[in-house]
Amino acid sequence: MAARPTVLHERAEPITRATLESVARRVTGGQARDLASQLPEELRGLVSRPTEDPDRFGFSEFLERMQSQTGVDHQMATDGARAVLDTLREAASAKEYGDFVDQLPQEFWRLTGPGSGQLQPRRIGT
Q1: CA angle, corner 38, sides to 89 and 74, nearest 5?
Q2: CATH homologous superfamily, domain 3-45+56-112
């Protein structure tokens, strides 16, 4: 078990990249650009998109994309994506993060918690 955090740490950059690129594809281009404007320069390009229409894929496909792009198992993809999105929540304004989450299907709330229109506490580990 002690090796798991080390593996996650070693995979942090690819997991961050895959998470941000994938969720950016799931929201409108305008929302992705709005979110990107609040991120550090080195991460903006991962979130900003030239097209407006979001890709339509569900939570399972999101995790499959994560696993394929990073070479990690299902649990590590889930844990890694959750960590990236938790950091995104801290980096962006509450309004911008809420607007972003509101464009994701509710099944993504397992990682993000509810959006701005849903004032419910996030259930950790669900």
Answers
A1: 40
A2: Uncharacterized conserved protein DUF2267 (1.10.490.110)
